[in-house]
Design a protein that fits this description.
Xyl_isomerase-like_sf; globular; IolE/XylAMocC-like; 287 residues; 10 strands; alpha/beta; isomerase
């Protein structure tokens, strides 16, 4: 597994891309997941690119943004081409987005057709650039359950559409995360790891809260401290007969406070978990 730190974790801090890259290298991450807003702002400083990042021993595992899928086609095309240029600049072959902003059961046939058609169009626009469109499992989108996600990929039917398996959101849907991994394994090309202390706090990940500087962070916990069994999931993933899954990119998607402390600790514990040397519940010296 190749682990990335998300620049979105530092969205409310006064911190440079150089400091994030230095932190990632010091904590043995292999890459960064670059938030689209950060990529757009950094475009004014072109010296920061994939070659600069490689100097830290890092790569850009994914560019994460939000496509206006049902906007005017010209608006969508402009956004896709902008993200494609930024992805190439940073050497990433993946652009993450969401499958709309409405749950799968709330769309009628015409709305589903419109969504699927737009996703096909985006994939076709990205294909000449060698870039994949990565859809995240997420509530209040079409990819809100295992069955809906399978239907989405079957209907869009594009080889450059891939899946970001967000473990918490799959669990939130009511699915067994191991069974979901098996069912969706051929679609998965990225993982998001985050956790929560209790299902009662899942609303903290709602966009209007999580992106707000003054939003609640109650219930956000390190990945091995919450209700989702990451120790069991990582063990299952490491022993999975599909070797490709064991070598995919995964991002620690931390939205809470004390970013460096939490991300550094989670990265260390994940490394121990992968090596099967010690318990994932190990308490670090001085923690």
């Amino acid at each position: 597994m190749k682990l990335s730190v998300c620049t979105i974790s530092f969205r409310h801090q006064l911190i440079s891309i150089a400091e994030i890259a230095s932190f990632a290298r010091q904590n043995h991450f292999q890459g960064i997941e670059l938030w689209g807003a950060h990529a757009k702002n950094l475009a004014e400083q072109p010296q920061y690119d994939q070659h600069w990042l490689a100097g830290y021993g890092l790569k850009t595992s994914m560019l994460s943004d939000y496509l206006p899928l049902l906007a005017d086609e010209a608006v969508l095309y402009h956004k896709v081409q902008l993200l494609a240029r930024l992805a190439r600049h940073w050497g990433s072959e993946k652009i993450r987005t969401f499958a709309g902003a409405v749950g799968s059961s709330s769309l009628d046939g015409q709305q589903r057709h419109a969504l699927f058609s737009r996703l096909q169009l985006v994939c076709d626009w990205l294909a000449p650039h060698g870039i994949n469109l990565v859809i995240e499992t997420h509530p209040n989108t079409y990819a809100d359950s295992v069955s809906a996600t399978q239907q989405l990929f079957a209907e869009v039917n594009r080889s450059n559409m891939q899946l970001n398996f967000d473990v918490l959101h799959v669990w939130e849907s009511g699915a067994d995360i191991r069974a979901a991994l098996d069912a969706l394994q051929e679609l998965i090309h990225h993982f998001h790891f985050k956790n929560i202390s209790d299902a009662a706090h899942l609303s903290v990940f709602a966009p209007d809260n999580v992106y707000a500087a003054a939003g609640s962070r109650e219930g956000m916990v390190p990945i091995f401290d919450g209700v989702v069994d990451y120790a069991g999931f990582i063990d299952y993933l490491q022993q999975h007969p599909n070797a490709r899954l064991r070598n995919l990119d995964a991002s620690l998607e931390w939205f809470g406070n004390h970013c460096k402390k939490i991300l550094g600790r989670d990265r260390y514990l994940l490394q121990l978990q992968q090596q099967h040397n010690q318990s994932p519940a190990l308490v670090l010296p001085g923690a």
